[in-house]
Please model this.
Amino acid sequence: MKIFETDIVRRANQAMRDGRYDEARSLYQRGLTLPTPLSRQCDLNLKILDRRVARSDEFPKDLAVGQSKSEMPCHYAGAIASGTFRVDVIIPVFNALSHVQQCLAALETCRDDCEVNAIVVNDGSDLEVRLWLESWANQQPFRTLINHTENKGYTKAVNSGIKASTAQFLVLLNSDTQVTPGWLRNCLRCLLSDPNVGLVGPLSNAASWQSVPKIKNSGGDGFEINEVPVNVELASLSKVLGGISQQIYPRVKFLNGFCLMFRREVVDSIGLFDEQAFPTGYGEENDFCLRAVDKGFGLAVADDAFVFHAKSKSFGHEKRILLSKAGGQALRDKHGAETIAQALDETEKAIECLSPLRQQMAAYFADPERFSRYTDSPSTVDPIAFSPKPSFGLPDFNLDPVFSGPALVLPYQGSYVSASPGLDTLTIGVHLHLYYGELLSEFVRLLGNIPVPFDLYVSVTNKEDEMRVQTEAETIQNMSCIAVEVVENRGRDIAPFVATFGGKLGGYDLVCHMHSKKSPHNLAKRDWRRQLLHNQLGSRDLVTSIFNLFVENPALGMVFPEYHWSLKRQIGWGTNFEICKSMAGELGFDISPLHMKLFPAGSMFWARGSALAALWSRKFKTSDFPEEAFQVDGTPAHAIERLFGEIVSHAGFQLLQVAADKAHNLKNYFPRKWPYPASSSTEQQARVYDYIRAKANSIKKVPVFTAITGGYEKPIVHEVLDPWAEYVLFSDTTVSDPGCWLVQELGREANDPLTSARLTKASADRFFKDSEFAIWIDANVLIRNSLGYYLGLATKNSSFPIFGIPHPVRNCAYAESIAVIAAGKGAEEAVRRQMNRYRDEGFPANHGLIETNFMIFNLHHPKIGAVLEDWRSELRNETRRDQLSLNYVLWKNRCEWFPIMCEGHSLRDHPDFAYMGHGRNSGLLPIV
Model:
């Protein structure tokens, strides 16, 4: 079978995800000789690879969960390839035979498809232990035994094992541990997630900061040894942890030595463990970590890996305390108490991002039956083998989708994308099921990205939406003709696709299916529709690239977006297998409960019409689908959705998941790496002139204000200047006004410019006493559409004092405080003190979180003065993090707030705005 040319790109992408950068570079360079657009995609990915190696990612740290993305690029790493890795596991042994036997037995059964060589260093154990180990070593290959005739101490034992090792990856493993399924591959995934990560450690029940669920003991003066609940198998515990983990991989300065994975390069660079300063251990791993950090290696915690630690079985508790004190003193003597204290402080801060995981694990430890309920669920018994491998997006903000999974990454924007020869001859049919008519404008905008003529088929459920479609769809570029049908509310979007329009769609070369999906029942999936549509129709370059794939690969049958991150445990047959099996039989093939072709979850895709021939030939009728009764599974529509991949595959075609190289929730974020296509100075000046002329004839004046302090930003000329708006710019420095701003001198509100800017934001009632409303917008945000819609919301809902944007990631000030600390955006002691005061006063968790970059203040509200005065007080007397305090002061004054965006929208992805990088990271070139 001929390997299609896109395999070069796919293999190169996989090599880059795995950290095999030299191999990736070689493959991309080979790809430069391929036809366009593959050659241009290879050129693009070579640039991405260079950025990755140079660690030049830029991202505003205050958006991070856990740690900042610039400090923690491993958050974007995808799964490692399904290949074989060679790992040497070094296990120092001193007596405690029963624990040694358990350790080696677990290691034997949990190799995770890797080539594992167990190097056991017997450091002068009793005769019984030595004889047993000699017998063990002779039974199987990949077992190495090193015998010390006398006890030389832990550090020398470790170094003996390292000297005997030849693998690229090494693991130091205590003999009182038990590894669990997935531990090794998950640690490798973490280690390979970033070329700068040199050392990795898993989570455990007893491993200081790497412990779950509790870190500190009840007295707070020591680390907890979490007892695993009775009758809970370690494999079950590991599976639950893996399902909960978000693979954050927090960066730390210390890793616990009970299980420590590192690259060969670390030892080559910093040398062996220090035998002289730490002859018996206890401090040697901290010294090793500090020396690695000094050489530029990063340390990360694999928060999806679990290794059980029995703790102190070789020496016992009392002797361990004495050894620990001696090791601690030796560490201070070598590195200095201040250095160690700072590293400890940074480690403790970094690990805070795992608090949600610990809370969830605590619930399982408190109710052990939950472990069995989790592992006995249909989705976790006999895991399904998928073909091809599924690709999942990542939660939060993702600057490098190329690293999020095995999906083929396609360009979102760029003039380098050109149509392949023959693309303009394709016949294209597009089906849109518009259940939510209010979303029509979103689809009109997206359909304009199709670069060639197409026919549009729209199904609606009422006459009003039919008229709306016929009116608004006329503006769609390249639409040849349109057919709109009012259909019964049966079979969701699937019945109209296969029954109402199936007879027509089967005749096209390419077919697109999409629908107005909403997920109001699930907060995690609130942006699912936008994620799907962005990766399917998000830009003209993206659609052109998808079409080129079909033109260049006749075997390609279906292209669909990578899975939403929230679906990680939901891709499978679920409870639909029996109806899927019956349906598959009708379509002429059989399926297995243990194997599954990938399917477009959410049922949005591009497909070759002939690849769905079996579906068209079935000649479905609307009556084949039950009436809508809020079914969540078990209907023909659910079965067809899961069979799409099987249908395409059994017809002899290939499946492919794709992802845009700019994430859906950052499509309107423009840092320096993604410049904004700004209008020319002439156009901006003409816009300012038109605004000044129109404003003179406007009666209403609503202040739209911002602040530039410390010269951090430059004034922006918004793309839409509402004539009823008075654009007011407060500044403590001289700024160059492009003509649309009313510049006001800002007195010294605080000792630092940032606090001054935020106090200005909280002072609308002081600056605009005669206005009914005042609109705040951060100085790095460009307005691209009229603000009239948002002002209208405020006018119609005047019982609210503040109108804001719900934070797209977090819903809680306490969760925000963890992110602030981890990102280094606030002094930890001050942030904790502020949050503790809020808790003492009874401020509840998950009480909402307003993004403060765009807000409307209702200055006629009776409580607005008290709210803003309290907010200013918090900014002056507590931290300057305004998002930490705003929802608190609203709660304190018994006020609600009105959300002006929904479905996880923010200024970074909403079409009405462009969110620029801050300061020197801005992608906008302002007028000078």
About this structure: The first strand starts at residue 86 and ends at 93. The mean pLDDT is 86.
